[in-house]
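new request in #modeling-help
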Amino acid sequence: MRQAFTRKSADTRREALVAACARCLAKHGAQGTSVRAICLEAGVSPGLLRHYFEGIDALIAETYRSTGARVADALHAAVEAVAADNPRGRLLAFVTASFRKPIADSELLATWLAFWSLARTHTAIGKIHDEIYADNRHDMERFIVACPGTPADPRLMAVALTALVDGLWLELSLGNAPFSADEAETLAEKWLDSFI
Amino acid sequence: MRQAFTRKSADTRREALVAACARCLAKHGAQGTSVRAICLEAGVSPGLLRHYFEGIDALIAETYRSTGARVADALHAAVEAVAADNPRGRLLAFVTASFRKPIADSELLATWLAFWSLARTHTAIGKIHDEIYADNRHDMERFIVACPGTPADPRLMAVALTALVDGLWLELSLGNAPFSADEAETLAEKWLDSFI
DNA sequence: CTCCTTGTTATACAAGTGTATAACAAGGAT
DNA sequence: ATCCTTGTTATACACTTGTATAACAAGGAG
């Protein structure tokens, strides 16, 4: 006897598969993320994945794009919570959002680790990575130059601040970090005090 | 006909397997690192791995320890190249070594990504990670307090500097970074200027 | 109602995975 | 020389992997 199934539109299915892929990467990491695991998570048969995507790599690439957008949205939401006439507060909000949920999150890190691994070998995914990071750094730079007392080289400042935030985010998300989210926030603020 | 083989001591074989595992992780990433791939790399049959290690996870854990020690050695070698009466120069050497070979290296990053992935789920590997990072941060703190004009909270300073270095190292090693190793060095120096 | 398109499943397949096990070979002890 | 220990290989096994393919079912068009 065949399993009953509901017929859905292509877009809905693609989105559902991307979401399932993200959940899978988060739960089981890159190792445990297979066609079967993803489709089980999506409540769908393995064949359907290949009906909508060229292969599992294409689905992961799409998931990278989607996850990157979700992160960027969360960061911008944090910024929008601060008044427009407080550019320094907005920059600080953009930065410190990385130390709190939903950005600082063990499962998001697991997803990101999988992306980094693939970015190194798979050039298509490498391109997506470059885009996401270029966008992020561009945003960071924009928020930096919006502040009064803009430093001489905002590009380099954005590079440094991004690296600092990434490093702190990584350790917080890995767990067992020898510092708290509050301390990370303090450090970021101190950094701003000295350079901007 | 059986393949000719040379009989070796247990220690030699273990080290050879660890080295092969490291090369494998570097070349093919976590995905492509299997018992068979490692043993092919070591020029040894698959069964031998289980003769010396409880399983592939135990070998990877040992490889993590070994690679961590190799990195720490490289960092300390950079420090020792600077005169003992120049503590600030030694700290800077410790920091900037991460932006040069052999630390800033795409294949080392691939290895490290595999470790991070496993550290999240495998608690035994997580412990090794914590040890390695605690050691590194401890060294960093030691080089910081050795400088004249030690800041109020050297622990937090070490946290921040470690995060900055990690973030810059990560992007440099991933490739296509929008900044050079020289610029990373400049940024680290600027950081020292402001805080120490 | 019937046909036809197509979303969806079930099944099959070849290749790869970690591990278990027995046969083999090398070198020292007797 | 012979035995015995043990390092090492070859092979087998059960399981998972990504993918291909044919059967099936749902819903609209005629």
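bot summary: Chain B has a mean pLDDT of 92.
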